[in-house]
Amino acid sequence: MDVTLAEHAAAVDRDLSTLLARFAGLVTRIRKELPIRRDPTPNRNVYGEQQLELDLWMNDLFIYASRESRLVSQVASEEMKEARELGRARFSLVLDPLDGSSNVKSNNIFGTIFGIFDGARLPARGSELFAAGYLIYGPATTLVYAADGKVHEFVQGAGGRPEEFFLIHEDIQLPPKGKLYGVGGHREQWIPQVKAFVAELERDLMNLRYGGSFVGDFNQILHYGGFFAYPAQVDKPAGKYRLHFEANPIAFIAEAAGGAGTTGTERILDVPPTGIDQTVPTYVGNRDLVERFRAKF
Length: 297
Fold this sequence. Notes:
Blueprint: H1 5-10, H2 14-24, H3 27-33, E1 40-44, E2 50-52, H4 53-69, E3 72-77, E4 84-85, E5 91-99, E6 111-118, E7 129-137, E8 141-147, E9 150-156, E10 165-169, E11 180-183, H5 192-203, E12 207-208, H6 214-224, E13 226-230, H7 243-256, E14 260-262, E15 282-285, H8 287-294
Parallel strand pairs: 3-5, 11-12, 11-13
Antiparallel strand pairs: 1-2, 3-4, 5-6, 6-7, 7-8, 8-9, 9-10, 13-15, 14-15
């Protein structure tokens, strides 16, 4: 029997199932807009990055779906300067509506990252996450979510209903031996610990994969095992990835799949939140590789 996303998540929590189903219900509309909303806008987000029309449109779309669910009290997004209040409700949501927006022009992988807090006010520590997940708008559209210590993957249309998401992998665990690695940023600006560790991975004959979207790059690690980072750099010691919208949700998923996430000096999910725009060096993947890397500090 084909298991839908809503059915599967309902066994974890009915409110979670309702919210995930609403997000999944946006996908067909998003895919129809992808060929149309590709142009840059005159606007830049709080991090100084130029926003695409698609960035802003998807941000509004997810916020509208969250409000209509009546399950989300607060939402914070990479595309907004501060958290937005939606009314009294159970969940708080953190969102990167379009992760990998630089890949839109070249038609490479991009997606959506989200984290869900149950009763916590934003900003919040990653260890307080109730669930997290991501969508990938690739050749197939997939949704991965983690909750209750497990990770599950769904694909749109697999059960013969084109708009429905069906379970394809349950309780995903990272393969015991990692095959891939990827590191963002500029090699000449990497801190010495990163340079040394990448040299080790190259000597181990691990394969380099880097595609320019966190969801795409991490999804490869989830399926093939390995190590992915957007590291601390000499000119950017706090890294690039946003703690709330990128690092925490992906680290939460990595840990639920048996892996780990670190800033180099501490567990990502334990980083005290100082603000919505906070960034951290981000290293995720197989636990043994992450621990090998941490030993260099």
